Amino acid sequence: MSSLRSRSGPERRTIRAAALLGVTLVGACSRQYPPDPAHDVDVPAADGIVLKGSYYSPGKPGPAVLLIHQCNMDRHAWETLTPDLVAAGFHVLTYDQRGFGSTGGRADQEKAGGDADAALGYLMEKPEVDKGRIAAGGASCGVTWSAALASRHPEVKALVLLSGWTDDRSRAYIAATPALAVFGAAADYQSDARDIRQAVAASKHPQSIATIVRGSGHGVSMFASDADLKPAIVTWLRGQL
Hints:
It is a single chain. It is built from 8 helices and 9 strands. It has 241 residues and is of the alpha/beta class. It has a single domain (36-240), classed as Rossmann fold, CATH 3.40.50.1820. The protein is globular, with a radius of gyration of 21 Å. 41% of the residues are buried.
């Protein structure tokens, strides 16, 4: 991936007791914030439809990421990235857009923005989520919805955009908000690289970066063609949040 921018008996017993105490203390600490495995959740949208989602927790307070899938997949498309994010301390929410996966209804671009708002609200209501450290990400059409989401919610401090297009209003917001960092990635294939470069170029944040990956993958399929992409995203997000 290329980037643009020997002891006596008493002593042994003492050591063994100390070791057992240490194990007990470690066990107690680990139980304080037990890992919360991924589980299905229901996210109510404004018009009453229920968005089916998956919520992942590292088992301790920390930053959070909302991920919006591309429009030929569903929320499970992110399962290749979410374990890495959770291992790094992030809470993650993914959800099926209308008409995809387990969410009912029909695909509706006019309601996609409101659905993203509802998902972000659900995530931020989690008491273990640090409301001052929120990121959003999208792949393909999810890029459009995640960038637009950031323009409506200044709580979003970082964007991860994979092979997608941002509209004029979202790019204007990115340009006017130097505190918003943008990580963009695309294969140098068709319009993907152009669109991602355009979104990142609008940003004035010093850590914003556009990355061209190996292969011709689109969206989350890039994880299979470029092994460096996932660790790059996780490292970058940790740096921002």
